[in-house]
Amino acid sequence: MKKAFLQLHIAVFLAGFTGILGRLITLNEGMIVWYRLLFTAVTMWILFAVMKKLERIPLTDILKIGGVGFLAAMHWVTFYGSIKYSNVSVGLVCFSAIGFFTSILEPLVLRKRFNGMELILGLITILGIYIIFRFDTHYKTGIIIGIISTFFAALFPILNRQILQKINVETMLAWQQTGGFITLSILLPFYLQRFPAESFFPGKLDLMWLLILSWFCSVIAFQFSSNALKKLSAFTVNLTYNLEPVYGILLAFIVYHENQLLSKYFYIGFAIIAIALVIHIILVLREEQKKHKMNGIVGVS
Question: pLDDT for 223-276, tens place per residue?
């Protein structure tokens, strides 16, 4: 159990490191994601084939998974774009709005009832982001792009849940990374025409960071979180992933000293977001305790 918790926190920590790497790599956001998808897809096909985890699936399912991969690619492009136009801390604060978008998109996609409390907490998070947007005006472009990124980030996991009901994780991920790579390759020439890149090929240092981003923050992070999920509940895993923006912002403070560049309004906005996150965690824990009590009562009867 301790090993599972350690693997889970390493996976979340690695996920939080993506923002740092996005700033370290000098390529533009489109090229960063293109190389990330390329290296990750190739690695996953080789690794999962050796592990004999890949399954044959129909073409219709491949196309559906590829479409979700495109949404994931758009999330990464806009996420790194947000960091390039602002900084790592602001980009990750915008990621905190994922709860708001999930509270709206999940009921619409899965056709279930809206959760009023989740909507309220999501709106509180948006308030925190708005305070930063309103008073730290030089971050406006980065915040707008970050909000778009968070919309994609909320949408593709919802669609993934439906896919995973009939396809294993390894097969889904391999095809998803491939689908994201193919669709981004088609769109990239048009994107680069609108947002020109200074360089198309990574230097030695950029190549090293890209490989770390692909192997550690994608492939290994997925393996650790999957191993943890075998021992821990999905509830524990999902709750722990709420720490991703916190880890990322702390890393940005340590590596880039961004805490010296941010105004008091960033901290006010972030404090509001943190309060909403804590309230949400408390409510989820209480709901989980109620379920355990009800299960206990049912078991006794």
Answer: 787 667 566 654 455 556 667 777 788 888 888 787 777 778 888 888 888 888
Residues 98, 150: contact at Cβ < 8 Å? Answer: yes
Scan for tokens 């994608």, then name that residue.
Answer: 218
Residue type present at position 47:
L
- CB under 8 Å to 258, separation ≥6 — which residues? 87, 88, 89, 249, 252
Confidence of residue 296 (pLDDT cuts 50, 70, 90): low
Amino acid at 298: V
Q: Give the position of tokens 């509940």.
A: 233
Which alpha helices (H) appear in 25-168, and where do they start and end? 29-50, 59-85, 88-95, 98-110, 116-135, 140-163
Smallest CA-to-CA distance from 151 within 74, 81, 60, 52 is with 74
Taking only the tens place, the pLDDT of each residue in 154-197 is: 888 778 777 877 888 889 889 999 999 999 999 999 988 888 87
DSSP 30-62: HHHHHHHHHHHHHHHHHHHHHTT------HHHH
DSSP character at residue 220: I
In single-letter form, the type of residue at position 88 comes to V
Residue 90's nearest CA partner among 32, 23, 26 is: 23
* Locus of tokens 């740092």: 20
CA–CA separation, 141 vs 134, rounded Å?
12
- Give the pLDDT of residue 300: 47
Asked if 139 contacts 270 with a C-beta cutoff of 8 angstroms, the reply is: no
Is residue 167 helix, strand or coil? coil
Name the DSSP class of 198.
Answer: S
